[in-house]
Specification:
Keywords: DNA-binding, Repressor, Transcription, Transcription regulation. By secondary structure, this protein is an alpha/beta fold. It has 3 domains: 47 residues, Orthogonal Bundle (434 Repressor (Amino-terminal Domain)), CATH 1.10.260; 166 residues, Response regulator (Rossmann fold); 122 residues, Rossmann fold (3-Layer(aba) Sandwich). The chain contains 11 helices and 13 strands. Strands 1, 2, 3, 4, 5, 11, 12 and 13 form an 8-stranded mixed sheet that branches.
């Protein structure tokens, strides 16, 4: 049986014939330039009627090739599985990206075919092609195993914003992230204000920018308070009861941990010594979680403004796409104070030395301070 061929999708030429106008007139109307081209309202109505009758839809890829943009934003994650579970660390970032894209009238393209044979996702294919160019610009998130793709993307001039601070030698990477350094500094200062004079720090061995920032904030707080910095970078499975005994034996009354897993080990050790949290030992986790050490007791954790970071990343990307040609991406980092939804992102700033305009392309939003769940004054005699 012969296969019935589908009718070819209608073109602008078809619309022009139906409306009795030129193809240039159709192009101006469907691209929102009727007023700029002084097209009469009646002619515009005829074109729109023909578009509706024929079911014509503009080809966004063709618009992109003509350099007009197609109002498509890409989303690429370096994670092996796209984070769609509400329990995933990246889920709320993506919700913010989606919400802001909807508010701005942009569509999203999810890139999921960039994974190589080794399970790592790359921005560039083996032949050097870049799938992201289907979109006007892209939001990137996750931890890249190789920063060379980010550097190349920057050199190619493709508009993108990374969720999370990234340092790439020789490249200025536009990003929106959390101000982990300031958040951790303030959290440790809060422990000091309660009377803690020996505050330990537990981190994982593999260091990325977000963890480096957290540790830097801890060290800054210790230096400001005149107390010793006591960092330990070790996998949670390597921590032992003997290590715990030594730590509390030297007078440590509080710990700041980079994740919930490390905090959980402290709970295990404390339980074996009949110690309670926070009565005998205060603990802060620097990655927010809905769990806690005991039923009804939440962790005192640093709150990460994931949704607002996702929204701010889209706002910054769109400001880059809409900026005039003379606009430059400013290397300075903006730290937003007060309302995370304020004017902290992508604010054009006049250049005192000329007529060019800068866009602040590296933005850090404030974290929410830890609650009181696992924080208390040190036991009497240990302050």
């Amino acid at each position: 049986m012969p296969v019935k061929r589908h009718r070819q999708a209608p073109t602008q030429a078809d619309v022009a014939r139906r409306a009795g106008v030129s193809q240039a007139t159709v192009s101006a109307v469907v691209n929102g330039r009727a007023a700029a081209n002084r097209i009469p309202a009646e002619t515009e109505r005829l074109v729109k009627d023909a578009v509706r009758e024929l079911g014509y839809a503009a080809n966004p890829a063709a618009r992109s090739l003509r350099g007009k943009g197609n109002r498509l934003l890409g989303v690429h994650t370096f994670e092996a599985v796209f984070p769609i579970s509400s329990r995933d660390f990246y889920h709320e970032f993506l919700i913010g990206v989606e919400e802001q894209a909807v508010a701005e009238g942009y569509d999203l393209v999810l890139f999921t075919s960039t994974e190589g044979p080794n399970g790592q996702r790359r921005l560039y294919q083996a032949d050097g092609s870049n799938r992201l160019k289907v979109a006007d610009g892209s939001v990137l998130l996750g931890v890249a195993h190789d920063h060379s793709d980010l550097a190349r993307l920057g050199r190619d001039g493709y508009p993108f914003v990374h969720i999370g601070r990234r340092e790439v030698p020789g490249a200025e990477i536009p990003y929106v992230g959390a101000d982990y350094a300031a958040g951790t500094r303030d959290a440790v200062a809060g422990l000091v204000a309660l009377g803690h004079r020996r505050v330990g720090y537990l981190g994982i061995p593999h260091r990325v920018e977000s963890l480096v920032d957290r540790e830097a904030g801890y060290r800054a707080a210790c230096a400001a308070a005149g107390i010793p910095a006591l960092p330990v970078l070790m996998d949670g499975t390597e921590l032992t009861p003997e290590w715990f005994d030594l730590a509390v034996g030297t007078g440590i009354t509080a710990f700041v941990t980079e994740d919930e897993g490390l905090a959980g080990r402290l709970v295990e050790f404390a339980a074996g010594r009949a110690m309670g949290i926070p009565d005998d030992l205060s603990v802060i986790t620097l990655r927010d979680t809905a769990n806690g050490p005991y039923p009804g007791t939440p962790w005192s954790c640093l709150g990460i403004p994931r949704n607002e970071i996702g929204r701010a990343a889209v706002r910054l990307l769109i400001s880059m796409l809409q900026a005039p040609p003379e606009t430059r991406l400013g290397p300075a980092t903006a730290r937003a104070g007060g309302d995370p939804g304020g004017e902290a992102t992508s604010v054009p700033q006049a250049d005192p030395g000329g007529s060019d305009v800068d866009i602040v392309s590296q933005v850090l939003l404030p974290c929410t301070p830890p609650g009181a769940g696992t924080i208390a004054a040190p036991p009497r005699g240990n302050a």
